[in-house]
Amino acid sequence: SQQGEEDPQALSIQEGENATMNCSYKTSINNLQWYRQNSGRGLVHLILIRSNEREKHSGRLRVTLDTSKKSSSLLITASRAADTASYFCATDASPGNTPLVFGKGTRLSVIA
Amino acid sequence: NAGVMQNPRHLVRRRGQEARLRCSPMKGHSHVYWYRQLPEEGLKFMVYLQKENIIDESGMPKERFSAEFPKEGPSILRIQQVVRGDSAAYFCASSGAGKTDTQYFGPGTRLTVL
Fold first, then answer.
1. A25 touches chain B (CB under 8 A)
2. Each residue of A78-110: pLDDT tens digit?
3. What is the DSSP string of A29-93?
4. How wide is the angle at C-alpha B33 spanned by C-alphas B105 and A72, nearest 5°?
5. A88 interface with B at CB cutoff 8 Å
6. Which of A1, A48, A58, B97 makes the best surface tag, with the fewest CB within 10 Å?
7. What Rg do the C-alpha atoms of chain B give, in angstroms?
8. Which of B43, B57, B109 is best to mutate for the A interface (most A CBs within 10 A)?
9. Which residue of B40, B55, B103 is in closest CB contact with A100?
């Protein structure tokens, strides 16, 4: 079963605005991770939130996790042009040794 | 303090040739993962290895694809008799502990099959 569906598929905002991306998944998880990918580059790990956590902050990033709704959101505050990238969520399903499953990503464009 | 390294960054092969992709994990990491990414898609898991062992190869095509992570040296993803459908970006990631640990990704190898 597919995990990690991001929404929206694409998002375009002005510099300084906040960007919110959502991720939904289908099965129980150990943790959920958010990654960023600049065009033509590898993935950069942003933040990991465990199933027993509800919110986590890292700089301008805020991640929430609602296990009852099987969803997570990534908020980027005061966006910058350099935040332009694709953002992926990846779920680590439980129980067992299943691999990380990535969604198709949200393409964020921040216009200066 | 190098991160995950992959080479080559770009690889062009003709149909029927072999492709060898290399991945050196971060220092101190003994867990390696390979993923494939098609254009406009997310990453798809292929295989998870520890030193000298394949832990999970549930995402690997049954034929033509193989992976190894020897005691010494990088992890190798090998694709034999490549076809056009193998054209993709192949990413390697490593972690210090098992799969619940954060995975750090390399820059990827972009394979183009002519």
1. no
2. 999 999 999 999 988 766 566 788 888 999 999
3. EEEEEEEEE-TTS-EEEEEEEETT--EEEETTEEEEEETTTTEEEEEE-S--GGG-EEEEEEEEE
4. 65
5. yes
6. A1
7. 13
8. B43
9. B103
